[in-house]
Specification:
Elements: E1 2-7, E2 17-23, E3 30-31, E4 36-41, E5 46-50, E6 55-60, E7 67-69, E8 73-79, H1 86-109, H2 124-133, H3 137-142, H4 154-167, H5 174-180, H6 200-215, E9 218-226, H7 228-245, H8 252-265, E10 271-274, E11 277-280, E12 286-288, E13 290-291, E14 297-298, E15 301-302, H9 310-325, E16 339-342, E17 362-366, E18 370-378, E19 381-397, H10 403-418
Parallel strand pairs: 12-16, 16-17
Antiparallel strand pairs: 1-8, 2-4, 2-7, 3-6, 4-5, 6-8, 9-19, 10-11, 12-15, 13-14, 17-19, 18-19
Helix pairs in contact: 2-4, 8-9, 8-10
Length: about 425
Amino acid sequence: MAKFELKLPKMGESVAEATITNWLKKVGEKIEIDEAVLEIATDKVDSEIPSEVSGILSEILFNVDDIVKVGQTIAIIETEGVSETPKQEVVAESVAAVEEVVEKAKEIIAAPVNFSDSDKFFSPLVKNIAKQEGISMTELESINGSGKEGRVTKEDILKFVETRKSTNVAPVSKPIAATQTASVAPVSVNGGDEIVEMDRMRKLISGYMMASINTSAHVQSFIEVDVTNIWKWREKNKNAFEKREGEKLTFTPIFMEAVAKALKDFPGMNISVDGDFIIKKKNINLGMAASLPNGNLIVPVIKNADQLNLVGMAKAVNDLGNRAKAGKLKPDDTQGGTYTVTNVGTFGSVFGTPIINQPQVGILALGAIRKVPAVIETPEGDFIGIRNKMFLSHSYDHRVVDGALGGSFVKRVADYLESFDINREF
């Protein structure tokens, strides 16, 4: 019997580790090729790890809740006569690629820090950790030291590193760090109340939301849009579209197409912020908020959305939406977003004020489409008619996006929607 090492595979360029949440197989059990062996969770999505070979699970190397790095061996499977497979070689190459990306990122992030600029004392060990983790002087000074005279200890800086990794947000300034450590008033509980602990995903979402509020200066712009032509066009073409393409035609891909066009027109919205630096994104990768089976929300990403036609956009939207509902998203499906769209109209809301998905600088909420009386301008004069209208709610980061850009962007999205060609072919 040969032994096969089941390793944690590459799960996207920015994913370096995962937490084991459940072993689906026990030691001694038979495993078929491509059969799921365990479940893991990253900071974005849950996933299953399948076996690359058939055999018997002979050894489990990690327990539930253990954190495993990409490329680490997590289990041993005994096979008959095969010790190495092409898949193992692919995994090894993927691991090497991930390690190379991580090392390059560390080199870029860990720019030299001049510790002489600070009035505080930092030990050589703390300085070394700060350099390795790419911690800026602003971040280092924001850490509340537990040592003598408030000095930052090894435990203090390691705790800060873990907190920053778990929230996965851009570095924040000193005043914000102070608010994050502020005490919370106790909650009164009586005998009739039920206490339920948040699940892992809800805890992560909670952390992301608070981190975003504490990072970005949120401001909103709202605009009402006449989507009557889109409504009529979809009603006319949805059956033929599904028959030809095998895909349902919803409003979402039409809206996503308009957002992608507007981002090309206003690249200042397709950026992210890293400390005092603005990163201009080359690709337009649209995040779309979707529901998970447990009721939580997740944001899978449509890569290079500006390069898709309407059919391609519909397929991408349906694929990600269906896999999100089935809990089948892969970690890489949620990585690399540059701008996010959320459909609050699905739940009947007319408009909303969504929270920015860090480290992006904007998010658009689509309100419910309603039939409303409206003034219709014609060469013969103005008339009152029934139109299909909706609100677009644009939240953006006022640190780097001013009202002119934020308002012009959402206006351009509205213009694309209102000028939709009712005679368009799909």
